Amino acid sequence: MDSYPDFSAKNLSSSSNMSASLPGQVGLNATGGPPSMSISRLFPALLECFGIILCGYIAGRANIITSTQAKGLGNFVSRFALPALLFKNMVVLNFSDVNWSFLYSILVAKAAVFFLVCVLTLLVASPANRFSKAGLFPIFATQSNDFALGYPIVEALYQTTYPEYLQYIYLVAPISLMMLNPLGFIFCEIQKWRDNRTVSHSKIKIVGLALLRVLQNPIVFMVFIGIASNFILGQKIPEYLENFLDGLGSSFSGSALFYLGLTMVGQTKKLTKGMFVALILLITAKLLMMPFLCREMVELLDKSSSAVNHTSLSNYAFLYGVFPAAPGVAIFASQFNMEVGIITSGMVISTFVSAPIMYVSAWLLTIPSMDPNPLAAALQNVSFDISIVSLVSLIWSLIVVILSKKYKQLPHMITTNLLVAQFITCIGMVIWNFTVKQKDVTVQILVFIFLYSSLYSTYLWTGFLSFSLFLLRRRETVKIPIGFIIIAGWGVPTLLVGILLIVGERNSTSIDSAFFYGKHQIITTAVVLFISILMSGISLMCMNRNRQESNYENLSSCLWWLFNQEPGRLYVELQFFCAVFNFGQGFISFGIFGLDKHLIILPFKRRLEFFWGGREASGHTDPILPEEIRMTCQQFVHYHRDHCVKSIVKGRRCGAKISTGIFFGCDLVNWLIQVGLASDRGEAVMYGDRLMKGGVIQHITNEFEFRDEYLYYRFIQKRATTAESQ
Question: 356, 306, 257, 288: which is closest to 580 by C-alpha?
């Protein structure tokens, strides 16, 4: 986890030396040669890309740019900026320098993933929507975000070492679009025909519609036009045309990433309880199966004369496979109106999950040898750094839980114990970082007891939390044995560590806390994790929920070491993720519990609105309204108010009493879209906000601005509206 013990370091070194002698591996572990990629530029590139994506998400989430307005930006990116970029690069591409074996290796890998996902989906999916899933799921697993996210990453890694790799992005992307996507479209057309058998669809028409969708894609036809122009213009673009293409093409990267952030807003809300299993399997196929198959196919089929270039290409293929799913897949799902929830949510999740995988994979691929010493130091530093930052997150989360007084209630009482266990674990890791540098065995054993008693507790508290949620869902609060759970949550881990000290044999040469007591410790960790996963899995499966996935990694690493003591690079990557999930649990806890809505978010938002000159929380508005607000309110009051009142205003239970004349904010949003006063939910929120500022509606306690949520609002009496008085 943090480093390697000596008994595994020998195996690690031997596997490293053995891999250096295998065909196609020469150069990967060679020392003294130049690196195949510039890893120092990767983190700034990831920060730039995901920073722009975050800006787009914030703009959409804050309704600065509505979904209708975002479509305009999307049309510019896909119909102007990207075609210009593709055309220019296709024209200047030197086909004599292209490694065609690399391209058909990627094609074979993509085809293998496509057909595997397709066949498995046809076998296990329900008959009602079998063909729609068999069409869209394989496209999700094989079509990568090559241009918006992939190109900046490849440019950062290979611009100074293998600049010719940049051109492969433009050649690999059409593989999915022209050769694999048509098969998925055919399945979707079949599903449409099955859902509406009154419309006759011949086999030729179904295939024709699928091919038409491919040809309508700007990427496809611009690639063809660019290749034709390559031979006509002799790989030289006229100067006046080149400047024009540069102007359009240079706007693509930032616009595409910003648009990607906009498309992520609200997508995870479409995720239902029954979609979790399919979503996890899809992301696994895209981010794990795809990169490994790409790398292995290049290793098997590439015929490069240079062993160094062969290895570099295989590494490049692995990184290419990690690129997340493209937003275009979500567009396909929306066009067919099939599997929208899974595809859009998967696109969002895979985008953010891919970032750490890309960074760790690229870092490991640049290591000239699998020498355990630098890896041990790096893993130890990662664990220490993450523990420090996680401590800050946990302190914040504990303060929020205490101030909100939720720790007195279930299940927050168990959550508080989980946070305390995570806090002690991080402190133990920080102390261990200094203890391993000393030779005092007694101190090391005491710190080990402190560290692993709390770490095992975090595993058990996760299972107990899931179990308590299950009982609460079944309204069996009185049957929750809270006293027994607290004793077991702290006592069982301490007992296990005590038994480990008695039975286990300490490895005197190991400095890694994960291997301090060798195989006995690995078995103990695996058993505790298995119990936690079993409790969580059964409880959450009964509730159709899935929350704590992090334990599966802290288990994969243990089982890998037990059954295969020659780890290799994949094992090292698992170890890094182990360190992240073990000592970075505070980040997850902070995201779930540290941002309390009523204690943190809402007061901060009201204060921010006040400083920005917006409406104060009391609900008062300026006496002089802008013309746009005044006209909107007058139009609504004269032509739409009565109809709206009849449609959405009802008597509803508000606390202990039933209030009349109120409605939900989301009901008004739905009504505005239904009658055509707004084209999407973003515009409807803006419309409702103008009604609120104009004094037509108000929150029942004047606490919130207008939101597309289940918040109570009421119409103000006509004689009191600000807009009419002006």
Answer: 356
**Can you tell me the distance from the alpha carbon of 139 to that of 207, in angstroms, rounded to the nearest whole number?**
17
Tokens found for residue 555: 């288990």
3-state secondary structure labels for all residues of 399-434 = HHHHHCCHHHCCCHHHHHHHHHHHHHHHHHHHHHHH
Architecture of domain 627-715: Orthogonal Bundle (1.10)
Topology, domain 36-338: Na+/H+ antiporter like fold (1.20.1530)
pLDDT in tens, 201-225: 677 777 777 777 777 777 777 888 8
Residues of the chain with pLDDT under 70: 1-39, 197-201, 268-274, 304-308, 365-376, 473-480, 508-512, 540-574, 577, 591, 595-598, 601-602, 604-624, 652-659, 718-726
Cα separations in angstroms, 214 against 142, 182, 183, 704, 721: 16, 7, 11, 47, 54
| 708: CB partners within 8 A, 6+ apart | 665, 666, 669, 681, 684, 685
**What is the C-alpha to C-alpha distance for residues 123 and 717, in angstroms, rounded to an integer?**
60
**pLDDT tens-digit profile of 366-401?**
665 556 666 667 777 778 878 888 888 888 888 888
The topology (CATH level 3) of 374-543+569-612 is: Rhopdopsin 7-helix transmembrane proteins (1.20.1070)
Alpha helices in 25-129 (DSSP H): 42-61, 67-76, 82-92, 100-124
Token code pair at residue 525: 């960790």
Q: Which tokens go with 129? A: 């929507």
Q: Where are the domains of the chain?
A: 36-338, 374-543+569-612, 627-715
CA–CA separation, 57 vs 92, rounded Å?
35
Longest dimension (CA), the chain: 88
Given this model, what pLDDT does residue 137 score?
92
| Cα–Cα distance measured from residue 346 to residue 324, given in angstroms and rounded to the nearest whole number | 9
Cα–Cα distance list, 613 to 254, 608, 609, 621 (Å) = 30, 9, 6, 11
Each residue's pLDDT tens digit, 272-288: 656 777 888 888 889 88
**Amino acid letter at 90?**
M
